[in-house]
Amino acid sequence: MTETPFPAVSLELSRYDWGSLATCDGTAEDVPATVLALLAASTEEAARHHASDIDNVVMMQSNLFQSAVPTVSVLCAALTEDLMPHARSTVLWLLGEIVNADVHRSEVEAGRADLDVRARELARAGLWLFYRELRRGDPADTDVVLGIIQAVETDRARYELVLPQVDYHRRADNVFGLIDTVALVHVRDKRVLLVRTHGRKAFYLPGGKFEPGETDLVALTREVLEETGCALRPETVRPYGAFRGDAHGQVAGTQVRITTYTGEITGEPTANSEIAECGYHTYEEYSAMPETAPVVHAIVDDLHRHGLL
Asked: Which of 75, 199, 256, 274 could form a disulfide with 247 if both were Cys (CB 3.0 to 4.6 A apart)?
């Protein structure tokens, strides 16, 4: 019997009925052959070409379709194979695209609103594959690997324990130009709660960076109290989405990832010694502001698209 070149991947591919899985324009029956072509590609250009073919089928503009979930499992299996460096880097890139994506509206309407959660859960099952890549892999892949880990890791203490073992690491709150934050999306009468700190012109969602060992909920609760004077009701907190882009007011190339949650608060938001202004704004009011933070603007636009503002 002839041995397949990528046995783990072939086994994982065989577990799914790809012809029954939804994509942006039909079914995923061609995904297995494209994955194998990516892994066998002799050049980086060819690997990227095949990865783009997969990306444009299982996703559309960073929105997932049903077929993206088993694709994560297959790509994790690929990381256990003896791959050429350009193939490994491309697999990591594709994984990063999927685990940081949202769910396509058509899939939500089809009753599959949890595709992003399921994709991250599958990637989380292979978490130590990514930590291995971070510690021993190509330094050129560091940003991509960190993006995957930050999307799927639920134990921040472990994250901060591993980072010191990476020779080229920076601080956990700004690793390789990525600032990881959490923020509250609180809408009242189609107005969103925003704050502005002293000395800044742009408004932000209440929130901020993590203190060592904090979970998302602990950090969010602390930041909301510090910036608005209001207590966050933990039983009402629900994930809204993660947004990433250029960090406002930072050196060129720095990016920020804002993981957002909805939730109810107790009390009336008020300015304090740290916050110059604190209040609710309509979409039109925010859009007319002379200076805005790009990622916050993207979140406000998303709220408007969904009819919340």
From this structure: 256
**pLDDT (average), residues 129-147:** 83
What was the pLDDT predicted at 155? 83
Last residue of a domain, one of 114, 143, 169: 169
Residues 6 or more apart whose Cβ sits within 8 Å of residue 285 = none
Q: What angle do CA 169, 138, 125 make, to 5 degrees?
A: 80
114 in the same domain as 222: no
61: left (phi over 0), alpha (psi -120 to 50) or beta: left
d(CA 121, CA 70): 11
Q: Is residue 226 part of a domain?
A: yes
| Domain encompassing residue 62 | 7-169
**Opening angle at CA 142, ends 137 and 148, nearest 5:** 100
* 199 shares a domain with 85: no
Residue type at 267 in one-letter notation: G
In this structure, is residue 2 part of a structural domain? no
Does any domain span residue 1?
Answer: no
What pLDDT does residue 214 have? Answer: 81
Does residue 299 belong to any structural domain of this protein? Answer: yes
Tell me the per-residue pLDDT of 262-294, one tens digit each, with 9 for 90 and over.
999 999 999 887 788 999 999 999 999 999 999
Taking only the tens place, the pLDDT of each residue in 2-18 is 567 899 999 999 999 99
Residue 98: per-residue pLDDT: 94
Query: How many structural domains compose the chain?
Result: 2
The pLDDT value recorded for residue 226 is: 92
